[in-house]
Design goal:
Peptidase_S1C; protease; mainly beta; hydrolase; serine protease; eight-stranded antiparallel β-sheet; Thrombin, subunit H; globular; 227 residues; 2 helices; Peptidase_S1_PA
């Protein structure tokens, strides 16, 4: 999703593990047009990245909610492209299973412990960087990973949007951005393909981003599997 539109530029948020190592970023819009993306900033330790695109086809931006107000049992919605663009804009529903969880991950910048929201909304490869929303359409999290083990079902994690805001402030200081977005990601064959979603039916902006690698060598390894 797009969090900022300013003049002829717009900005998209995704997970760092989606674009890390990319030689080129291309963005596929909802109308089929493909445009180039430019990496504005990335932080392996928080697993966040911001991509700049042309705003010529951007009409709306996503609204961020307040993740601190989430409570266990609250209904949430995840949007993503599980397994690729053929299943783009897939919507799943679940509940907040827990808040203030901590997950440790090994990144290209070293070990990091991050605060996450636990949810049983279906999160699969292709959801990385996608929005976790409340029923009123406010983004409260960025879906990032899940536990994928035999006998384990419905344990996914999202980065709380309030924590994301703090990380984006550091990006904004460099690029003079304001904060407002989310995206989603899919893993296709030997490429990372970041499929940026519109927020429900009224966001008509980005449909997908491809992070093209000359060589795939993922540098982020979590005990939970990256979605």
């Amino acid at each position: 999703m797009i969090f900022k539109k300013s003049g002829n530029k717009a900005y998209v948020l995704t997970n760092n593990h989606v674009i890390e190592g990319a030689n080129k970023l291309t963005v596929s819009l909802h109308d089929g047009k493909t445009i180039e993306g430019k990496l504005v900033g990335a932080d392996p330790l928080t697993d966040l990245a911001v991509v700049e695109i042309s705003s010529s086809h951007v009409t709306k931006v996503a609204a961020l909610g307040n993740s601190s107000s989430l409570r266990a049992g609250e209904t949430v919605i995840a949007i993503g492209n599980p397994l690729g663009e053929d299943l783009s804009r897939t919507v799943t529903q679940g509940i907040v299973s827990g808040v203030d969880r901590t997950v440790s991950m090994n990144t290209s910048a070293g070990e990091s412990s991050i605060n996450v929201i636990q949810t049983d909304a279906a999160i699969n490869p292709g959801n990385s960087g996608g929005p976790l929303l409340t029923t009123d359409g406010k983004v409260v999290g960025i879906t990032s990973m899940k536990i994928s083990e035999t006998g384990v079902e419905g344990i996914g994690f999202a980065l709380p949007i309030n924590d994301v805001r703090q990380s984006l402030i550091s990006f904004s200081q460099k690029e003079k951005l304001n904060v407002h977005i989310s995206a989603s990601a899919c893993w296709i064959s030997n490429k990372f393909q970041m499929c940026i979603k519109k927020k429900l039916s009224d966001l008509k902006a980005v449909s997908s981003i491809k992070a093209c690698m000359s060589k795939i060598s993922p540098q982020v390894h979590l005990p939970p599997k990256l979605a």
